[in-house]
Amino acid sequence: MLIDNYNEVQNRVREACLRVNRDPDEVTLIAVSKTKPLTDIETLRAHGVLEYGENKVQELVDKYEHIQEPVHWHMIGHLQTNKVKYIIDKVCLIHSVDSLKLAQCINKEAEKHNVKIPVLLEVNVAGEESKFGFSVEGLYASIKEIAMLPNIQVDGLMTIAPFVEDSEENRVHFRKLKEILVDINRKNIDNITMHTLSMGMTGDYEVAIEEGATMVRVGTGIFGTRNYKK
Ligand SMILES: *Cc1c(COP(=O)(O)O)cnc(C)c1O
């Protein structure tokens, strides 16, 4: 069941790429395993799936410590500065850098471990009240300072699009994020060459891919609906 779901999503990723003449290898499917048991991850891992997304520090650390075969962990949820130290040596990419202060904190912790950590800057492109992320203006205001942090590598941008019935409604937001990435790259800021666009979830990943996503974060479409009551 899980593997069928995963394969189905992977096929749709491929088809979305082909519709817009993109190479399917350009797009990484991240299985968002939040709230789901380790056994689900182990089932997919045995099938060769390596990329997993979690949005809570405690859950990520627990799963990291208990998994048998190593996988790549992506931190995709809002991160408090006081918790950075718990995940700094466990994640391959932090998608959710939403403030200069958080970037500075990640830089400091990465320095302690003598590593350079890849991050994405989260942008609230739709300007939703309820969402974390840089405003577009805030991103432009902070990017040069973030670029100077020696133990951070800014690989690209991430967004969480609004929850909508019709995924077409989010096309403008995905297009906007891509435009921002291209625009910032054109500015030739030292240490900033961005390649990664983390955008698209279960409801809208195909549209996101058509607009240039290089990473899609899919939970429900792979693992089924989440039960938060447990
Ligand atoms: C939960 C979550 C996802 C996956 O959501 P689905 O709609 O279940 O695919 C993607 N990105 C982030 C940041 C999330 O928190």
List keywords for this structure.
230 residues, 8 strands, 40% helix, binds pyridoxal-5'-phosphate, alpha/beta
Polypeptide structure, described:
With 230 residues, the protein is an alpha/beta fold. Helix content is 40%, strand content 17%. The chain contains 9 helices and 8 strands. It has helices at 2-19, 38-46, 57-66, 84-87, 100-112, 136-147, 171-186, 205-210, 220-223; strands at residues 28-32, 51-54, 72-75, 93-97, 117-122, 152-158, 196-198, 215-218. It has an 8-stranded parallel sheet with strand order 7-6-5-4-3-2-1-8. The chain is globular. The relative contact order is 0.16. The model has no long low-confidence stretch (mean pLDDT 97). Bound molecules: pyridoxal-5'-phosphate. Residues 32, 34, 55, 76-77, 160, 201-203, 217-221 line the site of pyridoxal-5'-phosphate (PLP).
Summarize the structure.
This protein is 40% helix and 17% strand. The protein has 230 residues and is of the alpha/beta class. It has helices at residues 2-19, 38-46, 57-66, 84-87, 100-112, 136-147, 171-186, 205-210, 220-223, and strands spanning 28-32, 51-54, 72-75, 93-97, 117-122, 152-158, 196-198, 215-218.
